[in-house]
From TrEMBL:
D-ribulose 5-phosphate binds at residues 16-17, 74-78, 107, 117, 140, 144. Belongs to the LacAB/RpiB family. The keyword Isomerase applies. SUPFAM superfamilies: Ribose/Galactose isomerase RpiB/AlsB. It comes from Panacibacter ginsenosidivorans. Its EC number is 5.3.1.6. GO terms for molecular function: ribose-5-phosphate isomerase activity. This is Ribose 5-phosphate isomerase B. Pfam families: LacAB_rpiB.
Length: 151
């Protein structure tokens, strides 16, 4: 095992309107775990454009200021596609715990994307727990991760 998150740094979180309720609950859950959370919005369930929140959240993770990032929208596809436009972001969509584990173990993901319309909140927090406590396996997976970025 190679890479664990430095949880002394803040966790970046962002969402669109479909993810707002989950974001608020996840922030509270993370705060109860004594983690610092940097919230990039949105700040209400009113309709918004997800890239306006996914880009700054991903930028904060890419800068190294965040331990990792969480993005939430209805399907998680839009926020994942937006975040993955950044050179050093590896954002994965999760719908079960095993996926959250594998995106860390095999892909060294630094952002987890939650589909709020398709997973219950307890599963979302379980997946985040799995994601943030799973180390990157390295080895052959390290070689593959190194090939992901555009040159």
């Amino acid at each position: 095992m190679e890479n664990m998150f430095d949880l002394s740094r803040p966790v970046a979180i962002g969402c669109d309107h479909a993810g707002f309720e989950y974001k608020e609950a996840i922030k509270k859950w993370l705060n109860e775990k004594k983690l610092v959370v940097k919230d990039f919005g949105t700040s209400s369930p009113d309709s918004v454009d997800f890239p306006d929140f996914a880009h700054p959240t991903a930028s904060f993770v890419e800068s190294g200021e965040a331990a990792f990032g969480i993005l939430i929208c209805g399907s998680a596809n839009g926020v994942a596609m937006t975040a993955n436009k950044r050179q050093h972001i590896r954002a994965g969509i999760c719908w079960q715990n095993e996926v959250a584990k594998l995106i860390r173990l095999h892909n060294d993901a630094n952002m987890i994307c939650i589909p709020a319309r398709f997973v219950a909140l307890p599963l979302a927090t379980d997946m985040i727990e799995t994601f943030m406590t799973t180390a990157f396996e390295g080895g052959r997976h390290g070689r593959r991760v190194e090939k992901m970025a555009c040159m």
